[in-house]
Amino acid sequence: MEVAMQDNNLLDNEEELDDFDDEGTFITLIDDDGKETSFEVLDYFNFNGKDYAVVLPYEETEEEVVIFEVKHNDNDENSDEYVPLENEDTMFAVFEEFKKRNADNFNFED
Fold first, then answer.
1. Does residue 107 belong to any structural domain of this protein?
2. What is the DSSP string of the chain?
3. Rounded-to-integer distance, Cα 102 and Cα 84, Å
4. Within a domain: residue 108?
5. What is the tens place of the pLDDT at every residue in 57-72?
6. Which of 43, 65, 75, 78 is 20 to 30 Å from the Cα of 26, by its Cα?
7. Do the beta carbons of residue 46 and residue 17 sit within 8 Å?
8. How many CB atoms are located within 10 Å of the residue 3 CB?
9. Residue 37 forms beta bridges with which residues?
10. Total domain count for the chain?
11. pLDDT above 90 covers what percent of the chain?
12. pLDDT tens per residue, range 19-44
């Protein structure tokens, strides 16, 4: 998936991770078939040497997050690839890190 930015209050791919503003940040991802899906970015962080985005599908009724590994495109710094995690161990570890980082921001169910 590629990322397409929508407004000026969105995640800027050129920003350092430390500069990420987590209030009202949205991205639109375009899949291989050209279908656009919008997400609210809940967190964006580096974990074990890789960048991850924890997002919530916009306009979905379920509150289930999606975790993407963010792969930076060396040829186009404004076009990152968001790859869904398939390895359950990695997904669990990244989600646990997300929970630690956001314990004060969200109520997590056990």
1. no
2. -EEE--STTS--TTS-GGG---SS-EEEEE-TT--EEEEEEEEEEEETTEEEEEEEETT-SS---EEEEEE--SS-TT--EEEE---HHHHHHHHHHHHHHTTTT-----
3. 21
4. no
5. 987 667 788 999 999 8
6. 75
7. yes
8. 21
9. 29
10. 1
11. 37
12. 445 457 888 888 888 889 899 999 99
Alpha carbon of 63 to those of 7, 24, 46, 72, 94: distances in Å?
23, 16, 23, 27, 17
Give residue 74's identity as a one-letter amino acid code.
D
Task: Please indicate, yes or no, if residue 106 is contained in any of the structural domains.
Answer: no
Token pair of 9 as six digits: 């209050």
Amino acid at 24: G
Q: How far apart are CA 79 and CA 75, in angstroms?
A: 9
What is the chain's length? 110
- Structural domain including 36 reads 2-101
